[in-house]
Design a protein that fits this description.
eight-stranded parallel sheet; TIM Barrel; binds phosphoenolpyruvate; four-stranded antiparallel sheet; Alpha-Beta Plaits; binds manganese (II) ion; alpha/beta; 33% helix; 2 domains; 11 helices
Amino acid sequence: MILVLSPDTSPDSAEYRQLLDHLAQLPKIKTRIHQEKGAQQILTEIYLIGDTASLSLEDMESLPGVERVVRVSQEYRVLGRHKDDHRPTHFEYNGVRFGQDNVNVFAGLCAVDNPEHVELMMKGLKEHGQVCTRMGAYKPRTSPYAFQGHGKACLPYVFELAGKYGIKVIAMEVTHESHVDEIREALKQTGNPTGVMLQIGTRNTQNFELLKIVGRQREFPVLLKRGFGITLDESLNAAEYLASEGNRNVVFGLRGMKTNMGDPHRNLVDFAHVPVVKRLTRMPVCVDPSHSVGTRNRAPDGILEIFHATMQGVIAGANMVLVDFHPAPTKALVDGPQALLMEELPLFLECVRNAREAYEKNVRLMGEARHG
Ligand code: PEP
Ligand code: MN
């Protein structure tokens, strides 16, 4: 059960103390407090954990300071959508809105290789009005002999160039808690020219200790990728680990499932789950067509299969697209064969816009049919 307090209920107020005293007396109930400091107000939610079945909604609603009460199902307590749950399905980070009702494209380098390529990428993004990108510095690789990413060495120039070209959010995978510290430190050293969305890759979806650490910090939002060999429920529970530790600015990423049933794609594209994740949770949903499809094959209609998968995700209501581009894919150190070319960027953005328009039109059509 969640008690949503009236906005700006001060932790020092008498009614807040009264409320906590009352809750402390409830048998077999533990409380966990979550505060969200917005620009205008502080929102406080108190999670009641334990034997809440015996508590009545009306009683709890009448307690001092309580504005609303949400009874949660067992699943995804913080991030889930529950009955009469009007909690938000969006968040803001560094001036960019991430919600279940909009789309952001994160086109960029799978792996940072050199400053020239980073600059060409960011310059191209700026020219096409983009403020988000992906830049891999820490790369989890199958072979220990493969390029592992430049790590913290590349962070200063990546962040400075982001500032130069107006990039506000960079999706960057972390595989260890030290990476979060390195990113924080490099941002500080360069004067915070940009923001970072920490990415938990598919190989770490169930690295629970990493999830707890990333969940305990609330400075950076998190993109959690679905595990490639586990159920959707298991991956959504992984996202809940982040939120249960305090960080609920989480985007959920679909990136395909590892099975040879997906051949000749790199992974079996799972974008039909976009509306499912939006129904079960309040998280914005990201699709990664590059790691799902994994090749630059072109269908007979002239459209690259990566474009096709992108549009399938967007027409399903996806809120973020993570996609590999490279100014010189033959020189890319990771995933060159699936990278899109800079000259394909405007086309790609237009296809995203077209698919989004079709989605919005379908939503309106369905609304009219249902409500007249
Ligand atoms: C990536 O986005 O660079 C990546 C490695 O993705 P995934 O974890 O989905 O394989
Ligand atoms: Mn990759």
